[in-house]
Amino acid sequence: MLLNENDEYVKSKIFKTVELLEYIPKSVVIKSIVRKTTGSISVFSFDSGEVLTRKTSPFDTFIQVIDGKAEIIIDGTSNLLETGESIIIPAHHRHTIKANVKFKILSTIIKSGYEEINL
User: Which of 9, 38, 43, 73 has a CA-to-CA distance to 32 between 20 and 30 Å?
Assistant: First the structure.
């Protein structure tokens, strides 16, 4: 079993991310793997034709396609990603995630570290 009594994923157990959720017709499905105040890791499945529009995020968002092909539009520029490819959506930039065909993505947001760093 991958979930414990608190509906959190059991740590130190092997799982296949792409198998955590199924495609549901005419839906976008989201499942959190890790959710902390400092960031989150989530997996999404998009059925063909679905669109997730988010105006902006105050944090960079790392997106990795784990199944299918995704269209990630950042500030009006279309980026077509295939399984295994990734992109970083910069903080404070308009973006849309569009399913021309069904796909699954892994989304990682790290909320800490935005303080100015002096090297």
Answer: 73
**Domains of the chain from N-terminus onward:** 17-110 (2.60.120.10)
Nearest to 18 by CA among 89, 83, 101: 83
Q: How far is CA 79 from CA 58, 61, 85, 108, in A?
A: 21, 15, 11, 18
How are beta strands 86-89 and 103-110 bridged, if at all?
unpaired
pLDDT at 58 over 80: yes
3-state secondary structure 64-94: EEEEEEEEEEECCEEEEEECCCEEEECCCCC
Q: Tell me how far apart the alpha carbons of residues 6 and 35 are, in angstroms, rounded to a whole number.
A: 13
Tokens of residue 58, six digits: 């105050």
Instruction: Give the type of residue at 5.
Output: E
